[in-house]
Amino acid sequence: MNLPEARRRQYLEAMGIPLWERRSAPVTVLVEDAPPVVAETAPATGDWAALQVEVRSCTQCALHKTRTQTVFGVGNPKARWMFIGEAPGADEDRQGEPFVGRAGQLLNAMLFAMGLKREEVYIANVLKCRPPGNRDPQPGEVEQCEPYLLRQIAHIQPKLIVALGRHAAHSLLKTELPLARLRGQQLSYHGTPLIVTYHPAYLLRTPTDKRKAWEDLVRAKATMASL
Ligand code: URA
Fold it and tell me: What is the model's pTM?
């Protein structure tokens, strides 16, 4: 076993994924050739840089009054994969980067288990500012902020979006259907295929559902391979 594969196995174990389950899924399905890594610091196109400036100075909803800073997104602005969460938490608000707290560490492990690196996918949230006390995003906030996400998607042109958790899925899909009804379906967000899975923060609280999350991620890999 080479080193990356050994590390991937360690991450799978950390996610609580039994080894026998991985053997049933051939590695060729799970690991594809990684696209070139382009860091966020790569020269940005005018549109992208302008969008970042616009988000940074946004005052369209009341969240600007309580944020430390906006959280635009991180990763490869030409990624094939886009992972979308709900909104920044306290750590993200402090550091200006999505998914940097404990949930972010689990997201990194999930990505690694899929054979992906954080730098090669794009990670963003529906909301670019932290709701105070980590309360749920309000519909008005989603409405104000969503155009930024749509412009990010238009620029990145991901092949597949993974919605992380119920709130992200509900905000994106404009539905109140329970997560159980949304998982396992190939959905679409403004024409881009979308798959719903559990939020890493939920998985930290409910590790018994990590296996189901892994099933979603395997399905997402298979979907990507078919695109
Ligand atoms: N939860 C989210 O949905 N997004 C983050 O960036 C962090 C935690």
Answer: 0.84
Q: Which atom of ligand 1 is nearest to the CA of 165?
A: 3
Instruction: Tell me the β-bridge partners of 123.
Output: 74, 83
C-alpha separations of 157 from 77, 80, 192, 193, 210 in Å: 9, 7, 8, 11, 28
CB 84 within 8 A of CB 163: yes
| 3-state SS class at 119 | helix
| Minimal-distance CA residue to ligand 1 atom 7 | 99
Nearest ligand 1 atom, CA 91 = 7
Is 41 inside any structural domain? no
Domain for residue 24, yes or no? no
- Nearest Cα neighbor of 124 from 143, 97, 158, 151 is 97
Pocket test for ligand 1, best of 199, 202, 205 (most atoms within 8 A of CB): 199
Q: How many domains does the chain have?
A: 1
Domain enclosing residue 86, as ranges: 74-227
Provide the percentage of residues in the chain whose pLDDT is more than 70: 80
Q: What CATH number does the domain containing 226 carry?
A: 3.40.470.10
169 lines ligand 1 (CB under 6 A): no
Model confidence band, residue 4 (pLDDT cutoffs 50, 70, 90): low
